[in-house]
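A quick aside before the break. I want you to see a complete sequence-to-structure record at least once, exactly as it would be stored in a machine-readable document. Don't worry about memorizing anything.
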Amino acid sequence: MADTESPKALGELAPANRRSLSEDVAERLRSAIVRGTFDPGQHLSEATLAEKFGVSRGPIREAFVELEREGLVTIERHRGARVTRLSQTDIDEIYEMRAALERLAIERAMRFATDDDFAAMDGAIATLKRAVKARKIHDVVECDVGFHDLIYRAARHSRLYAAWSNLRPQIETFLHSRSMDTGDYLKRAVLEHEELRDVIRGKSKKTAIAMIDEHLRSAHERLSQLSS
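That is the input. The structure line, written in tokens, reads:
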């Protein structure tokens, strides 16, 4: 068997694609589902989507598998997939898990966040302020979730970040579909994220944990009220 580091073996390998077709399809479908282009429970036809995207059915099926893993669709044998209809139980489970993950993320971010991490948080808050002022709710949601993504990145924990990434699409779907129904979300968004940034920078573990618990509790409560 040829050594994989030998020139011959390396020469036989084709260059890796930077982004596969199925990943591109998955990203476009994910964005559409999260943004509410498709309704909960709506059927997604392989044939229709393949024609729409100008691809074969293979990348569509592979994208469905990825989105099912993220909890955004349910694959139906020989029929394509259906957009997941998330229930109150789903909200409860997702936010219980998110609270556990985010406590760890906050603790580690206080230890490992760099000046570049805080600069990124400052930039995210500035963008959030502009979105709130313009009352662009979908942009506000993306800034909100993007800020929390920066906390997980600052935690420097690859498996923690992977767990968050798996949960993130469902959280975004909830926020896009429901938060636009309440002015309280817009009113509090900037202040709450400024406070989170400051407490991470201040390295007060007790205050940080209490703050993230309250931040997520209020988000959970708001979504629960809107879905009832």
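Two observations worth writing down. The first strand starts at residue 43 and ends at 44. The chain has two domains: 18-83, 88-227. We'll return to this after the break.
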